[in-house]
Amino acid sequence: MSGSQGVPLLEVENLTTRYPVRRGLTDRVTRQPRGWVHAVDGVSFTLARGEMLALVGESGCGKTTTAQSILGMVAPVSGTVRLNGTDIAGLPERQMRPLRRQLQMIYQDPYESLDPRFRVETTVGEPLLVHGIGGSPAERRVLIVAALERAGLSPAEAFLARYPHELSGGQRQRVAIAASLVLGPDLLLADEPVSMLDVSVRAGVLTLLDRLRRDGRMGILMITHDLSTAAHFADRIAVMYLGRIVEHGPARQVVRQPQHPYTKALLSVVPARDPRVRSAPQLLTGETPNPVDVPTGCRFHPRCPVAVERCSAQDPALRVAAGSASASHEVACLLA
Questions:
Q1: What is the 3-state secondary structure (H, E, C) of 245-309?
Q2: I need a surface site. Which of 25, 184, 205, 304 has the fewest CB within 10 A?
């Protein structure tokens, strides 16, 4: 599916996803209302072809649920998800299945995402069989080899007969990437693609993803908790906290001139390149609020070091940051 002129590859608008809280016997007998986990609450962003958007934030902020809602793995409560201008949110499985070729996911743990019983050729070729691509085994083999070569496994023939336990961590992740690339997708959703890999191979996988989106004109939504990685590879950064995007803008702008106290706290613990540069980390007090019982007003105010009284009553919307040099740098903070 090719995008129309001027239409973003991906448009997410007011996406909301909640999980029901399981009620115990006592709650049922006393007819207590069901609780809901507010995993994603009104998230909006766009992604163009050839662009990488990094979705960052601490564990439990809703990053992975956002990706799963885009894919249709989790049904959103409300909101719109457009792929090449077509609304895919809530589509029946029969209509969604052919569209799944256009968006693929790379999972965090290559040790879990690959079936240990399958050889590499079978793993990468399985999506072709599911979608009925390739008329013969020979034709499918050509596509499999091309995907492995594109994922940086060369010569591909040396890997076709191997099992996952015969590969290194970096090679396993490249096999997983090849299984996503073999369908020729427009959009890759990379969920912490290097967090389970050794530091020595992380740069290689990230450079591969960067090259794929530049050469293949595909868009990449990268989920990560590493702001330094996002700053180096992504075009834009969206910072999430408790189901909401609290800051969004060009990657360098967000990193060099952070406007939200939460973004500043995340950046304060990133090691500086120069070991002589000393900075005091800004440690947040308290635990992340319960997503079942979201705080009133700004949801960050219970942990915010600069919060004032009105922060507990007024819920700020994303708006252009007054202290930013970019019109596309937005922040959800009353004091920014």
A1: EEEEEEHHHHHHCCCCHHHHHHHHCCCCCCCCCCCCCCCCCCCCCCCCCCCCCCCCCCCCCCCCH
A2: 25
Q: Closest Cα partner for 182 from 106, 108, 85?
A: 106
Helices (H), the chain: 25-29, 63-71, 93-96, 110-113, 120-130, 137-150, 169-181, 199-215, 227-233, 251-256, 261-268
Choose among 117, 86, 112, 109: nearest CA to 99: 86
The candidate with the shortest Cα–Cα distance to 15, out of 47, 35, 42, 55, is 42
Contact (CB, 8 A) for 12 and 69: no
Radius of gyration of the chain (CA): 21
Q: Nearest 10 degrees: CA dihedral of 224, 186, 236, 306?
A: -50
- Tell me the C-alpha to C-alpha distance, in Å, between residue 154 and each of 128, 145, 148, 149, 157: 21, 9, 7, 5, 8
Q: Is the distance from CB of 326 to CB of 254 less than 8 angstroms? A: no
Q: How many angstroms separate the CA atoms of 258 and 245, rounded?
A: 14
Q: Give residues with Cβ within 8 angstroms of 60, minimum separation 6.
A: 288, 291
Residue keyed to tokens 């050839």: 50
Which one is predicted more confidently, 104 or 201?
104
Q: Are 12 and 70 in contact (CB under 8 A)?
A: yes
Tell which residue, 170, 179, 16, 207, has the closest CA to residue 104: 179
Per residue in 92-132, pLDDT (tens digit) is: 888 888 888 899 999 888 888 899 999 999 999 999 999 99
For tokens 């500043």, the residue is 264
What residues pair up with 16 in beta bridges, in sequence order?
41, 78
Three-state DSSP at 53 gives strand
Q: What is the pLDDT of residues 241-283, one digit of tens each?
A: 999 999 999 999 999 899 999 999 998 877 666 666 666 677 7
